[in-house]
Specification:
This is Rho GTPase activation protein. This protein is mainly α. The chain has 2 domains: about 60 residues, no CATH class; about 260 residues, GTPase Activation - p120GAP, domain 1 (Orthogonal Bundle). A two-stranded antiparallel ribbon has the order 1-2. Strands 3-4 form a two-stranded antiparallel sheet. Helix 4 runs parallel beside helix 7.
Length: about 400
């Protein structure tokens, strides 16, 4: 590893032996600890003839992150864990303010709390703070905050199976059959009939929505509990504002941050094995646009006039969307709602591993410790500034 990383690129052959295309070598000096890298790197083919120079035969796009983690015995993290389990600790707020990678920090904290069955408590604390600091319900949860990043991670942590059950079959059918739909007449070929495309798009949109409705009972209980508590928090704050906010606050997460991203990037959500081609991706994009409009309870406006024909579908199904939200946001918070059965219990013994048993909390605490050390100077400056301001 000290000399770098070498990736072999092979041509897989079902009949004959796999052949070597070349190698990508990443020198160690290019790899920075805990930094995300993405780019194109040359694939070098080394000739078997002695003295013959290697040649570039192509490029490979890579996205990677190098991380070294030194994990100490569990007892070494006792004091740190005790500090972190105080969800209202100022330490977390300070770390958020100096974070250069909010997504990583949110997911690291989420895993620590999830391993201790405290993810719900932490998320609701963040939600109360964000709602308290936001006077306009229309911009609530629109930005990239510690809360939205944490919930994104939480939904992926516990909701991937639900996404697959709700929309997986339809997405796979579209990708396998390379279904192409385009309703923007400016992008159509002369011999293409936009009415035919509209019939196909509306057909798949109805299938998608019906499948989501049909699987509402499979929404993970943890998400239902969170959505129910979130609605209570919002209704207490925005008493005089539009009642639609009690629906859009939930749809903004389950649709705009789970279903729609899964439509736009099905491979990332483990719905398909390969990225869809450009034409198929356009079909999924149009489905995501319609789903987003329905989730927002709004028509398509003048910015996308070519989608106006879908407004009828949105209006016809707005009441059904609200029924769906009412259904998945009814579980109330109680210890029984999110208490994890012991690993030895019959309830978990014969099932696949689940949270928190999938999380190596010592590894997460080690990563957190390294993060604090790297940002020590920033933290000290922030604490000094806070003391000066308060004095």
């Amino acid at each position: 590893m000290r000399s770098g990383v070498t990736i072999a690129v092979m041509n897989k052959n079902r009949i004959h032996k796999d052949s070597n295309i070349g190698k990508v070598h990443l020198p160690f000096f290019l790899i920075q600890h805990d930094e995300d890298f993405e780019g194109w790197y040359p694939v070098m083919y080394e000739s078997k003839i002695p003295g013959y120079p290697a040649e570039i035969v192509g490029e490979l796009r890579l996205r990677f992150k190098y991380e070294e983690v030194v994990i100490l015995p569990s007892s070494s993290y006792g004091d740190l864990l005790k500090l972190l389990l105080d969800v209202e600790s100022q330490l977390i707020s300070d770390l958020v303010n100096v974070s250069k990678n909010l997504e990583w920090f949110a997911e690291n904290m989420l895993r620590i709390y999830a391993a201790k069955d405290m993810a719900m408590e932490w998320l609701l604390f963040l939600a109360r703070n964000e709602v308290k600091a936001t006077d306009d319900a229309n911009i609530l949860f629109r930005g990239n905050s510690i809360l939205t990043k944490a919930i994104d991670g939480y939904m992926k942590l516990i909701g991937l199976q639900y996404v697959d059950e709700a929309i997986g079959d339809i997405v796979r059918s579209i990708c396998d059959n390379k279904i192409y739909v385009e309703v923007d007449e400016l992008k159509l070929e002369r011999n293409e009939d936009v009415r035919t495309h509209w019939r196909v798009l509306i057909g798949y949109t109805k299938m998608l929505w019906k499948s989501i409705e049909k699987t509402q009972a499979k929404c993970p209980r943890e998400l239902c509990v969170f959505f129910s508590a979130l609605r209570d928090i919002i209704q207490d704050k925005y008493v005089e504002q539009s009642q639609s906010v009690r629906y859009t606050c939930v749809s903004g997460f389950i649709f705009l941050r789970l279903f729609c991203p899964a439509l736009l990037n099905p491979k990332q959500f483990q719905l398909v094995k390969e990225h869809p081609d450009a034409r198929t991706r356009r079909t999924l994009t149009l489905l995501a646009k319609t789903t987003q409009s329905l989730a927002n309870l709004t028509d398509f406006n003048s910015k996308e006039p070519y989608m106006a024909q879908m407004n009828e579908f949105v209006r016809q199904n707005s009441a059904k969307l609200m029924d769906y939200i009412d259904y998945i946001a009814t579980e109330k918070v109680s210890p029984a709602n999110h208490k994890t059965p012991p690993v030895q219990s019959p309830e978990t013994f014969f099932k696949p591993p689940q949270i928190p048993y999938l999380i190596d909390i010592d590894k997460e605490l080690s990563s957190f410790s390294s993060y604090v050390i790297r940002h020590r100077e920033d933290l000290e400056n922030l604490i000094s500034l806070e003391k000066t301001t308060s004095s």
